[in-house]
Amino acid sequence: MKSTVKETRHRMMELLDETRRETQFALSDIDPEQVVHGGNAPWRVRDVIGHLGVWNGEAAQSLRAHAAGHKYHCISSEAKYEEYNGAAVGERRTWSVEQVWAEYKTSHDQLKSLAESMSNEAWDREMLYPWNEEGAPWRLIEEMMKHEEEHREAILAG
After folding, report:
1. pLDDT, tens digit, for every residue of 105-150?
2. What is the radius of gyration, based on Cα positions, of the chain?
3. Which residues pair with 37 in a beta bridge?
4. CA distance to 73, 83, 96, 133, per residue, from 76 (Å)
5. Domain boundaries, given as residue ranges, for the chain
6. C-alpha–C-alpha distance, residues 45 and 23, integer Å
7. Neighbours of 57 (CB within 10 A)
8. Count of CA atoms in the C-beta half-sphere (13 A) of 5
9. CA of 125: how far to CAs of 10, 118, 121, 144, in Å?
10. 80 DSSP assignment
11. pTM for this prediction
């Protein structure tokens, strides 16, 4: 049985709320300076939170453009993902932990607000994602929350 726009939108609102609640609960008591990804430019917990805020913000920008009948992407393909991530994390390394969490919360608020207010017609229409692929708006939200869960679980797994 095919879900209605109302049912799908409701599921996405619940997913956004649940993911945010779980991430904030799980990561708020972990040392934000703890290194969680090694390599040439190690990422700390705070860098991952910043990364999530950036990408949720990019998803919100894509939803906003889509709702207005436009398209938006921040990278030309997934091949540019590492380059984009490095620059975005580098920019946020000078931010306070409070600023990083504020961006994370704001981007979640934007995603939720845009998903709630998008017209049914736009909700049912394919859109351009930030990484230059196309799909449904609800699928973008699912992908972003899956992305967040994967990072959260990787941090908790230590």
Report:
1. 999 999 999 999 999 999 999 999 999 999 999 999 999 999 999 9
2. 16
3. 43
4. 7, 11, 30, 9
5. 47-157
6. 12
7. 20
8. 13
9. 17, 11, 6, 18
10. G
11. 0.94
